# Entry
Amino acid sequence: MPDATDVLEALERSFGVPARSKSRWRRGWLIRRLLLLADVVGLLAAFIAAELIWVPWQGHRGTFATHTEVLLFICTMPLWVVAAKLYGLYDKDEERTDHSTGDEVITFLHMITLGAWLLAAGAWVTGVATPDLPKLVTFWFFALVLVASARASVRAYCRRTPNYVQNTIVIGAGTVGQLFARKILQHPEYGLNLLGFVDRDTGDEQTVGGLPVLGSPDSLTSLIQELEVERVIVAFPQTSTSETLGLIYSLSDENVQIDVVPQLYELVGAGIGIHSVEGLPLLGLAPFRLSSSSHLLKRTMDICVSLLGLVLFAPVLLGIALAVRLDSRGPAIFSQVRRGAGETVFRVLKFRTMSADADDRKLDFAHLNKHLDPRMFKIEDDPRVTQLGRFLRRYNLDELPQLINVLKGEMSLVGPRPLILDEDQHVQQWARKRLDLKPGMTGLWQVLGASSIPFEDMVRLDYLYVTTWSLSEDVRLLLRTIPVVFRGRAD
# Structure
């Protein structure tokens, strides 16, 4: 595979960009051009695939695309690129640290569907070509699959290059600033190289990871230039509101991405809407209770996907069950009482990954709990886990029987983390709102770190999920779970 520098230089030559220092190649500049390339390649491959598939089935019409069809496709390619730009499909990676291909599936589903039918209608109205419905549907399907795959591959490649990493400064060394710094350090996949903090009157407080306080807010501009900073996170610095605004305004001439942690960030989910009253922006929190139609929509998706999953994975389920029985003494399926929606209890189903006497030996290993917080229990390299169980856990295969829980209505595909009763008793007051929805096989907690997430963060994530639910967010989380499963997790 070519070196990242070679790719960048080739892109600069192709797009006519003057040569410049490698240190000034930025994440957005790189990924926008590679995403554009991914779109063109994906659409072209879909066009060729549709032609090759239908040629043998069309008898006397079984010839490859006419010159008119090829010319029409090539001439409309710039329109696809412009449409992708208007849909915002090239801009989010620089703005959002956690943006992924799964986040934009709904967007380019809409774009490709609309674009394919407009292209067909335009060709028919103008008489340039006669649309072929089977070819059109085949092109639409392959365009979705190939464009998504190409975009995911491009992002995976970019994130392995040094140019994806952004030098980052957090303005504010207090509790909130250090909270965000800790999360940045725990997630290198965000591509943020945290240099330190900018704040005043920090005293002798120890900062996260020993990161330095680089200076006062007055020195921010010079620090950005000297350290080639590309992202600034404003997290409640010890300055007045007017001073903070002035600080942000002063960065207007600097080529940096600015992120602002909102007040009451604990209530603000990823899909929060912004509206205004006479130019004054407001964050619109969704109603704290789902409507009947939303519950019905969520349940319908649970039934359809879980039933399909059980049918498709039936051979895998039977194979794993047999392997578990042969690997160690005990039943293939392990069940455990968990807290369900509305204060109910149910038995969650999993493939057994531990020795049959694991529960009896739990207290013997309590001192190995990796969570300093006693409310959560997790042991690294747990000696009770079987050899096969370690493999099943790594790729979350032990959780496949929960599709039965979903079909029965005890769980959902996406939802809050299903807690055992000992953990649930520590969830108090407003946090019990998490029980308004059924616990899920996956959710924000799974995508963002599963068992490595502290108890308070897990509860807050569940609360945000329940109070800001949307079907598109469920689809996004399901799609983001796929790479998490394939990447595997530590025991």
Observations:
- The radius of gyration is 26 Å.
